[in-house]
Here is the input.
Amino acid sequence: MITTTDLKPCPMFINGEWIEGKNLPGLPVYNPSTGEVISETPLGGADIVNQAVQSAKEAFPAWSETPPLERVRVLFRFRMLLEENFESLSELITLEHGKTLGESRGSMQRGLESVEYACGITELLMGNIMENVASGIDCEMLKQPLGVCAGITPFNFPAMVPMWMFPLALACGNTFILKPSEKVPLSAVRLIELLAQAGLPKGVLNLVHGSKESVDAILTHPDIEAISFVGSTPVAKYIYETGTRHGKRVQANGGAKNYIIVMPDADIAKTVDGLTGGAFGCAGERCMASSSAIAVGKAGDLLVPALVEAANGIRVGPTDRQPQPNMGPVITGPHRDRVNNLIAASAEEGAKILADGRSPKVPEAPNGFFVGATVVDQVQKGMTIDNEEVFGPVLNVLRADDLESAIALAQSSPFGNGTAIYTQSGRTAREFKHRVNVGMVGINVGVPASMAMFPFTGWNDSFFGDRHMQGREGADFYLKSKVVTSRWFAKGEGDVWRKA
Ligand code: NAD
Here is the structure.
């Protein structure tokens, strides 16, 4: 297990050198299980971003001309190092984020799969060709890298979300600047150490730390071609609008509110497993969290008592030691207070708190940022707890008379990240998946998050842009197309014209 004495203030990586940013203001990084400060994030601004962009710009010509097979050899080595360091990286994620070790391992596995997908980039770099678009004229479409790209990431998946971005961007021949969340910078530092160890040439990937000032410098820098962002909806919208206004290609994933419909014919035991795993996994800090159940008709009679029993059985506690609890803390003290206030508001607005996680007993870690598993029943449209993305271990239960009104409820939210239905009826499931206005749909799967080979298709206010992250669409985001139209003349063919 990593101890806090192993952790130095968090460095940046520019042009192959580690920089400490000693003269910069800093923000504390916490171990959410204990409330202890374990590191500090230096807050870089335009100056640091300019240095990183300069280094990425200088590295671009050589990296983009490196044969793709050589580029992916670096990623294959990186993948091997990720496997070798899988356990210590999982522990680091747990230390700075607070999710359980099992959840950290799960997120590392998903990150690893994104690297594996990027290792197969050669297939996706192929263009196409058509002969004789007109007589003797051929047309070919080439795919070429964009140049310097940047990634700005959220706190809730400190390693996985960065790995949605830079492996594909680098495999496509771009150079990259990563700006991780200032709340969880340590896992990103470790990833970049391993990438450097894998033999990535200097300047190809640069790591900067900071918050709004550094992001604004990225958004407006004339030498950055494309920006990938994952975070909350207001910031995603701002990133998209500002980045595109400055001529950049932008993909920006935002927040979510995911509704899970439970039909009267659902297998209740499996539904309860799926819903509680989806709502309370990672302490609810997931953009694909199953944060709201819609019980249709009589489904609520069995479902709600079973959900309450399951929630009361979830042991919350510190994740930085053994034995592991079922659920860890949320990210910070202010975030814990916000979640508690939203639970309190739900009761004030008429909902019923059936399992109340506001004051969990965790004597072994009295200063950790804990909220217990909470179930709020009789939630109505328009209540604050329904309007807001809670991003904590809170499961709302709403009621609907039939599928029609359940679908209407599910899509009355401005978000459109994930949704699911629990039913034993193929016809009901088919109707739901066809009609629902949400980008990732589960059928008897509570967290239908796309895997690396499929795009992560948030819709509506959960995504701003036109090419999603991951999969073929994710690779296309980091490539531009060029169409070459060519013809060749026979020797002396032009003489006919000259003689005329
Ligand atoms: P956040 O929006 O607060 O921060 C994300 C990033 O934006 C960070 O790197 C931060 O430094 C930067 N940032 C924050 N405020 C900024 C501002 N005003 N101007 C410029 N940059 C700013 O998000 P968070 O709290 O770190 O993460 C949680 C959010 O991310 C949730 O809303 C969650 O749903 C969302 N999320 C979405 C997905 C997805 O794929 N849709 C995945 C993971 C998380």
